[in-house]
Write a structure and sequence with these properties.
By secondary structure, this protein is an all-alpha fold. It has 25 helices and no strands.
Length: 460
């Protein structure tokens, strides 16, 4: 199978896809450590600033929110100016935000630093997938996406152990600096970063409206732990932002949210269903350390050790995901990921209620499997359903919905956990993947040819 780069006359080594996909996966994993490593340090962070679980959850929720919102922005930038500049900007923000978080004198400064860090880290998944989708075709692309997801999940899963060991040796501030390591990867993938784009203008107003609307949703969900004012702000942003976004799409059909992309049924339905995977992952990032460190008396590094089996699963997932995508298709693979996410959350509710480390270890393995299957399935589904000139923004929008699910998951556990208790919060969150599954039903009932034909009609 020849890559697109080869068709354009560029000489690409036969093993280039393995090297590039794994390096990008490492970068993705280091960005993911912004949540995974930080999660085990939340109890120590809370003690230092004198705040509880509901408040410390904002360090994860705001990171995930900004991560979600800016993914589409980077996707659109990559369509306009190529991949290299947006990725460098993103890595710079991630590094600067991590440094500021490590030095933050107050909790307010820490939250601002986490916003900056999330805004930078968002460049990695969108642009990483865009690199592989544009550089490789067919089965090679599927394998590359599988390696990316598996490598990313493996590195991210090591985050709690690295975070726990770092916290024990140097304190929680050193944990916040871990994502700075991502800058070391850039020289090794430099030649894979394209610099060509359409040169079109960015719809800044559309980007701002989408950001505010997504923020409103997360603020509203987390308001049970933060009070009426936050709830009203979230409701206002969501209530005003939704119609304004719709109006902007009608006014600028080729703007930040291109109409051809958001009216594509494969993109929208796939993204909604896939959002269950990060919702489960980010929700568990809050719940598992809170249960084991806060209630069972574990040390943060012990929580990291508990995730080691899930890291092994993550390493093995690329061998499984590529053939699975080829055999049953991206949509059915997404369905499997959603069901696995729901099962993980219900099992986590049980494990949290009885304080069972064994059950929680099984939960982490299951959600790692869901991520390893769901993320490349979403990328493959969206990448095949849109035209090349909007692939970057389509992947960005899909990742926006995907990571908004992560923000919703952490916000729900952080917001409801203090009101209902963590087991009930996890159980309620476990219902959402089943609801998201309904979005896939029309696609699951259709043949792959019919689905792609419907997408082509929307694009035309």
């Amino acid at each position: 199978m020849r890559s697109r780069a080869a068709e354009l006359g560029e000489i690409v080594p036969i093993d280039d896809s393995r090297r590039v996909s794994m390096l990008i996966g490492v970068l993705f994993g280091v960005a993911g450590m912004g949540s995974a490593a930080a999660a085990v340090a939340l109890p120590a962070l809370g003690q230092d600033f004198g705040i509880g679980v509901g408040s410390t959850a904002w360090t994860i929720s705001l990171y995930a929110l900004m991560f979600a919102v800016t993914t589409a922005l980077y996707g659109r930038f990559s369509d306009l100016v190529g991949i290299r500049t947006p990725l460098l900007v993103g890595i710079g923000l991630m590094t600067g935000g991590a440094l500021l978080a490590a030095l933050a004198p107050t909790y307010g400064v820490l939250l601002f630093a986490r916003l900056v860090q999330g805004a930078g880290a968002a460049a990695v998944p969108t642009l990483g997938v865009a690199i592989l989708s544009g550089r490789y075709d067919g089965a090679v692309r599927g394998l590359a996406l599988g390696r990316l997801a598996g490598t990313a999940a493996a590195v991210t899963s090591l985050g709690p152990l690295l975070g726990g060991l770092t916290e024990a040796a140097f304190g929680w501030r050193a944990v916040m600096a871990i994502p700075m390591l991502g800058a070391l990867v850039i020289p090794f993938v430099w030649r894979a970063l394209t610099t060509e784009g359409s040169g079109a203008r960015l719809d800044v107003l559309g980007a701002i409206l989408v950001a505010l609307t997504a923020a409103g949703l997360v603020l509203l969900i987390q308001s049970p732990s933060t009070g009426l004012v936050i709830a009203l702000v979230g409701l206002l942003l969501l209530g005003l932002g939704t119609p304004l976004v719709a109006l902007q799409v009608r006014r600028r059909p080729d703007g930040f949210l291109p109409r051809d992309v958001i009216r594509n049924p494969v993109v929208v339905r796939s993204a909604l269903a896939a959002a269950a995977v990060p919702a489960a992952w980010f929700g568990l990032l809050i719940a598992v350390p809170a249960v084991l460190v806060g209630e069972a008396g574990w040390e943060p590094w012990q929580v990291g050790v508990l995730l080691l089996p899930s890291s092994v699963v993550a390493v093995l997932m690329p061998r499984f995901t590529g053939p699975l995508l080829t055999r049953i298709g991206a949509v059915r693979t997404l369905a499997i990921g959603a069901v696995a996410s729901s099962a993980a959350l219900f099992l986590a509710a049980w494990g949290s209620a009885v304080l069972s480390p064994v059950l929680l270890a099984l939960v982490l393995i299951l959600v790692t499997f869901a991520f390893g299957a769901g993320q490349p399935a979403l990328s493959a589904s969206v990448g095949e359903a849109v035209q090349v000139h909007v692939r970057g923004v389509a992947l960005g929008i899909a990742t926006l919905v995907f990571m908004t699910g992560g923000s919703v998951g952490s916000a729900m556990v952080g917001g409801l956990g203090g009101v209902t208790g963590l087991p009930w919060a996890l159980a309620i969150l476990g219902v959402l993947p089943l609801v998201g599954m309904t979005a896939l039903i029309p696609i699951l009932r259709s043949s792959p040819a019919a689905v792609l034909a419907e997408a082509d009609v929307e694009l035309d």
